[in-house]
Design brief:
about 130 residues, alpha+beta, five-stranded mixed β-sheet, four-stranded mixed β-sheet, 3 helices, 9 strands
Length: about 130
């Protein structure tokens, strides 16, 4: 095995989630196919390459799945979005309405700020420190 290809993120609405991840976070929509059962196979991915892990945006099918929307990791940061331009991406995301839960901070491991997606899942925007 060489990598994790996709991680499922349970969402309330496909189109709303696509808009958030592509417009506010700058991800690319790489797949959006209808399924016979009325579901869709929707994959978004950050960056320009095809090798990174993508998000499978899966619409909740029942009450148990709807109860998990926005709290898929029990309130912990569950997703880590790396950047090469922390200041630029942080400013662009704030301008797009992304909710940051803290001020940007600079730690020995890099620059970081916690934000929420449109459902309340917590993410780190992180520019790892460079090692010389």
């Amino acid at each position: 095995m060489s990598r994790i290809a996709l991680v499922t993120l349970v969402v309330d609405d496909y189109d709303e989630a696509i808009r958030f991840y592509t417009e506010a976070l700058g991800f690319r929509l790489v797949e959006d196919e209808s399924r016979p059962d009325g579901a869709r196979w929707v994959v978004v991915r950050p960056g320009a390459g095809q090798d990174g892990t993508g998000l499978l945006l899966a619409r909740a099918k029942d009450d148990a799945q709807r109860a998990r929307i926005g709290d898929q990791t029990g309130g912990r940061v569950g997703f880590f979005l790396h950047t090469d331009d922390f200041a630029g991406d942080h400013a662009r995301m704030r301008a797009a309405g992304v909710t940051f839960l803290e001020e940007a901070r600079h730690e020995p491991y890099g620059s970081v700020a916690v934000f929420e997606d449109l459902y309340g899942n917590r993410w780190d925007l992180l520019q790892p420190a460079t090692t010389a």
